[in-house]
Write a structure and sequence with these properties.
4-stranded antiparallel sheet; 191 residues; alpha+beta; Alpha-Beta Plaits
Length: 191
């Protein structure tokens, strides 16, 4: 015998079954609009706004100007454009002109006094322990520099090279140290 499962309510509710009665879920489903209806509503609204903004009404009628007034205003404009063409004809005028340049003596810089130029040191390391500073100093000696260790009041051991009076020598030393992947700190010495 065939059974009618559609009209009989389900008595077996599992763990995933909803506790909301079936009538309430149907009401909620009827109240919500599907996404495609919102899409159609947006498209229709967009077309309506576009039609309203892009109004194709004809422009207001402006009567034509009298012919004698038109002839008067056009003629001077053509004459003026001919004058401008003559005045701004660079391609023909520039080759015909010759520009005479005056001879200006070359600038010679005055050398700085070596007495007044400041001296600089390059600090290339700072260590809390003296053995670390001495090992680093040996590494710097291998590069061809004459480093020295300065001790601060706080107990830091700073490895420096210099002093440099010539800026070129300072820059070369700084480049060599930087290429060896060491950081430098430029320190101006008191005079």
């Amino acid at each position: 015998m065939a059974r009618d499962f559609a009209s009989k309510p389900s008595t077996n509710r599992g763990a995933g079954a909803s506790m909301i009665p079936q009538e309430e879920t149907e009401e909620v489903a009827r109240k919500e609009l599907p996404a495609w209806s919102w899409l159609i509503f947006g498209v229709v609204l967009g077309f309506g706004l576009a039609r309203w903004v892009d109004d194709d009404r004809p422009a207001p009628y402006i009567p034509p100007a009298p012919a004698d007034l038109l002839e008067q205003t056009v003629a001077p404009a053509q004459e003026q454009s001919d004058q401008e063409r003559q005045r701004y004809d660079f391609y023909n005028l520039l080759p015909e002109q010759e520009v005479v340049m005056e001879h200006v003596p070359e600038y010679k810089s005055t050398p700085r006094d070596s007495e007044n130029s400041p001296e600089y040191d390059l600090q290339i390391g700072s260590f809390k322990a003296k053995p670390d500073a001495e090992r680093f100093m040996d590494r710097v000696k291998e590069m061809g520099f004459k480093p020295r260790i300065l001790t601060s009041e706080n107990g830091w051991y700073r490895v420096r090279i210099g002093p440099f009076k010539d800026r070129r020598k300072l820059n070369k030393a700084q480049d060599r140290v930087t290429r060896a992947k060491m950081q430098t700190l430029l320190i101006r010495l008191p005079q």
